[in-house]
Structures are given as C-alpha cells and as structure tokens.
Specification:
The structure is a single chain. The protein is built from nine helices and 14 strands. Helices cover about 35% and strands about 25% of the residues. Strands 1-2-3-4-5-6 form a six-stranded mixed β-sheet, covered by helices on one side. The chain has a six-stranded mixed β-sheet with strand order 7-8-9-10-13-14. With about 260 residues, the chain is α/β, with parallel strands linked by helices.
C-alpha cells in the first residue's frame, strides 16, 4: 500500500510534507515550520498525527514542533547530533537507523553540510527521499555550518541512491536554481528543458517538487561537479570535484537572477 504524500505550503517557499502509511493509518509530518497549515491538512485528510520528523534544527523546519505536540500528542524525531537544538525531540536518530511509520520504513542518512546534524529520510520501498535543505531541485543547501568537502561527501552519498528516487526537498527554489545552473552549464539541453518546464509550472501556480534523482544527475550542477563540462565552463579543468563544488557554491551564494 505504501505512503500517501501531501504537500503543505508554508511561509513564502517552504514545503512541509505529510506522510500517511496507508496500511496502518499512521501519519508523520516532515519539517513543520508552521502549525495551522499542518492542522488544516490533517483535518482535510482525516488523519491523526503520530510523528514530527525533522531533517535539521532551523526554525522554519521546527517552529511548529511544540504546538503540534501539544495539539495532537505526537512524538518528535530528529538527528541525535541535534538533540539539544530540535524542540520537543524524543527519538534521537543516527546514520543507518530505521524510522518506522506503521508498515513504512525510512533509512536515516546522515548528510551534514547545510548544518552539522542534517539528516535525510529515504523510504526505499516507496522510492522517495525527504532531503530537507541538503539537496534541492537543481541546487543544494548553503554551507551554514560545514565546509564544501563535507557537503560534497553528503551529496555524493545521495547520488548513489536509485535513479528513480523522487526528491522531496523543503523549498520551492527550483526556478532560481535553474537560472543559476544555466550560467555554469549553458550547453546542457536537458537543463534548458527543465527550466522551461519549471517556468510553465510556476506560471500556473504549480509546485515543481518532487523530481527524480535521474533528472537531478543530468541537470543539477552541484551533482555534476565531477563532470568535465562543468570544470571547463569554470576554467577549473585541473581542479578536484570538491574544489569545483566549492566554486559553484561560492558563485551561487552571490548569484542574482536578472
């Protein structure tokens, strides 16, 4: 039966994800920054909240933890490394742990880079990854607490997942990311096509998330830091993938779409 997944928009560009294990009826919410949108979505679907699961400690991902605990009696799970930074956390998760939501299972992947304690949740049987702020569509998270080598290691780990894995990230950053990607990978026709598709969807008020890892491997410059085309475009033909990734991240930090 698997998971039923509902997108819950929050703030200006956040996505909160509601996950319902169809067989058991157990429900979790991923990275709830706001309370009322989650409560409304639960009511609309007739679900009772059992778990909050957090990918990292930032306020726009954890801001509703305590209110949801008080309103629903749910439990909170997050990275053991963030035990004292995630409000209400009761279940501390480490790399390789299995998180159970009824009959559905997620493998916990430790992916530091954006923060020191960031984790992702990979539901292998359902073919989906909740990547928080580590991996965005055609982008990646800023290096808030770690260096480029740490983030590259984490992204490389995600790149090894099955290519049909659907990436459920926590922000609608796709258009801005695609515009930047075109400046460092201008001859990538697959990228140009994705940009056009994203523009069409956003013009209709539609979300661009999720997308497959296969699409990301072909168009996300941060996952292509080991590719010769990217190195040539940056005039870094002799640089290592980590050095190329670091330069991509530096450029993106200062990029402004025209």
């Amino acid at each position: 039966m698997g998971l039923s997944i509902v997108r819950v928009p929050a703030y200006t560009d956040n996505y909160i994800w509601l996950l319902n294990d169809v067989e058991s009826g157990k429900t979790a919410v991923v990275d709830p920054g706001q309370t009322q949108p989650v409560l409304d979505a639960l009511h609309e679907n007739g679900w009772q909240l059992d778990w909050v699961i957090n990918t990292h400690h930032h306020w726009d991902h954890t801001g509703a933890n305590l209110e949801l605990q008080n309103a629903t009696g749910c439990k909170v799970a997050g990275a053991a490394a963030d035990l004292h930074r995630i409000p209400g956390m009761e279940l501390a998760l480490n790399d390789g742990d299995t998180f159970h939501l009824g009959s559905s299972e997620a493998k916990v992947l430790f992916t530091p880079g954006h923060t020191t304690g960031h984790i992702c949740f990979w539901f292998a049987k359902d073919g989906c990854l909740f990547s928080g702020d580590t991996l965005f569509l055609m982008g990646c998270g800023k290096l808030m607490e770690c260096d480029a080598a740490t983030m590259w290691t984490s992204l490389s780990r995600l790149m090894a997942l099955p290519p049909d894995t659907q990436i459920y990230c926590a922000h609608e950053y796709t258009l801005a990311n695609a515009h930047f990607a075109c400046t460092v990978d201008p001859h990538n026709t697959a990228l140009q096509m994705r940009l056009s598709q994203a523009q069409e969807r956003r013009s209709r008020g539609e979300a661009t998330v999720p997308a497959s890892l296969q699409e990301e491997l072909a168009t996300n410059p941060f996952l292509r830091a080991a590719e010769a085309d990217i190195a040539r475009q940056l005039d870094l033909a002799r640089a290592s993938p980590v050095e190329i990734f670091a330069e991509l991240r530096r450029r993106k930090d200062y990029f402004q779409a025209t």
